[in-house]
Amino acid sequence: MTIAFLVVAVLAALALTRLPGAIRGRNPIVVASAFTVALAFALITPPVYEAVDRLLPFENATDLLAKLLLFTGLLLAGTQVARAYDAPRTLRLVSGLPGALVFVAVFVVEVLLFVAAEPTGRAADLAVDLDQGVVRLYSTVATAYPAYIFALLLPHVVRGIRSSRTSARVTSALLTAGGALALVRFAIGLVTLGVPGAYPVGQVVSGLAAVLVAAGLATAFFARMLRGRAAR
Amino acid sequence: MSLPSGEFRAWAESVGLPTAALPLARALGVSRSTLQAQLLRGRVPEAQVVAAARVAGVAPADALTSFDRYADLAGRPTAPTPAEVLAQIELADALVVLLDRQAPGSRDALAGVRDQRDPPLPGSVRTWIDAVDPGGLRATLAERWRIAPSNVSAAINTPKLRPSQLIEIALIAGTSWTGGLAAAGVLTLEEAGWRRGARSDALTRLSDVDLNDLVADRLAAAQREARRLAADTEQAHRIQDTLG
Predict the structure, then answer these.
(1) What is the C-alpha separation between B4 and B16, in angstroms, rounded?
(2) Burial track B183-217 (b if 16+ CB lie within 10 A, e otherwise)
């Protein structure tokens, strides 16, 4: 609970530092991704979730919205990371036609599972009904998309850790750690299918992964600022 | 790997160092907990023995051979081969001598500007290994240590070879056993049995052909490094510009 708020605070702060640059047209894609992911994590904190969900046409629509935002943020961030590491094949699998198909397929499956589930109340990830198999599946499938994106990116990002440049090394290390946790989160999701008790651990891992990736992007941002200042 | 702590205590006593952990740590200038951990685990690193020998005023090479593990090496010659000496010469020092042959007097004129640096230098272990390699050394090491050849190369370039491995390489190559320790900076050149000024004399004696070869070799290495740095910088800027 507290962890969820901390995660949102960190993500929002890092996103806001970028706002002035984005308004001037500097890397709008990465900034948009930072804001959508921060918003997605904000939506699933219980008080925000309750409040927003009352405004939406059907119960727990907020959760579908949060997932759509999260996936979109990942799609945008994944696209830019693939570009940053000069990986055209991976770029196609993230945001080319194959990537778009995976994105749509995962989200359609999520909607179908959402419809099949019979939630008994308002809760992010329908987490109050984890005793239903279909709800556990709904939760786990959602972790497959981040795992897909980072499984593609990890081989490229890992190589950056050996760079002789500190900024590239730190950014690569943070993205690698975050990406590895996204894969761990998917593994925990698979465990949750059989053992619902693993779910809270998985949520903490999700938050940690998001913070690490955001920190990696922030490192690139601050390194660019420092470089710009040194050049002037 | 490292040396047994029982032997280390006995050796310390024999050279007049305190044997209790606290005074010994104080004498060696390391923290008590570090030393105590080494003694408790029963494994004292070679570098610690070298440091202790320096404090006690004993030749570090003799200190190492007084341990069972390295006892076979006692009395073996430690003087470097000419190739090992050349391996520790840097581009700038070779260039000064080259310049001196084109424009006599340059070496003296530059005497105060450029001093020879002692190992460990970037790439000094790699150049040493290239100098002593009888052929297929990296493959032999990969086999002996049961690790992938690429990991052997990485360990050589980083360099992350342990003193025991450096000694092992020297023995395989049939060269002076202290050569690797000198290249890695575990022992100073003099402690490893090098004459003072060995490198300057070797440079002076080099034929024009060999001097040109040496410069070309070092220049090629410098160019590889410069290219790598340029590529890393370009990648870092690309990451910053795309994600920042």
Answers:
(1) 19
(2) bbbbbebebbbbeeebbbebbeebeeeebeebbeb
Partner-chain contact A225 B235, CB within 8 Å: no
**Number of separate domains in chain A:** 1
| CA dihedral sign, ordered A77, A81, A82, A86 | positive
Residue B19 has pLDDT above 80, yes or no: no
Torsion of CA B171, B88, B104, B201, to 10 degrees: -40
- B55: tokens are 């404090």
Range of the domain at A78: 2-227
- Say how many Å lie between the first and final Cα of chain A, rounded: 45
In a domain, A177, yes or no: yes
Picking from B87, B96, B91, B132, the residue whose alpha carbon sits closest to that of residue B225 is B91
Q: Which residues does A contribute to its contact with B (CB < 8 Å)? A: 27, 30, 80-81, 83-86, 160, 163-165, 167-168, 171-172, 216-217, 220-225, 227
Contact B243 A30 (CB under 8 A): yes
* Full DSSP string of A126-173: GGGGTTSHHHHHHHHHHHHHHHHHHHHHHHHHHHHTT-SSHHHHHHHH
Assess if residue A134 is contained within a domain. Answer: yes
Q: Please choose, from the candidates A141, A143, A128, A117, the residue with its C-alpha nearest in 3D space to the C-alpha of residue A58.
A: A117
Q: Is the dihedral of CA B28, B34, B40, B41 positive or negative?
A: negative
Residue of A26, A38, A23 lying closest to A207 (CA atoms): A38
Span B201-218, pLDDT tens digits: 999 999 999 999 999 999
Helix and strand tally (H, E) in chain A? 10, 0
- Residues B211 and B231: their CA atoms lie apart, in Å, by 30
What is the domain-level CATH number for residue A211? 1.20.1070
pLDDT tens for A166-176 read 999 999 999 99
B4 SS3 class: strand
Give yes or no for a contact between A60 and A87, defined as CB atoms under 8 angstroms apart: no
- Distance separating alpha carbons of residues B96 and B109, to the nearest angstrom: 10
* Residue A232 counted as domain residue: no
User: CB A85 to CB B239 under 8 A?
Assistant: yes
C-beta of residue A138 within 8 angstroms of C-beta of residue A62 = no
Residues in chain A within 8 Å Cβ distance of B241: 27, 84, 224
CA dihedral over A175, A85, B220, B155, signed as positive or negative: positive
- Domain contains A138: yes
Which of A151, A139, A175, A128 is closest to A67 using CA atoms? A139
Tell me the CB-side half-sphere exposure of residue A89, using CA atoms within 13 A: 3
Is the Cβ–Cβ distance between A66 and A105 less than 8 Å?
A: no
Total-model pTM = 0.79
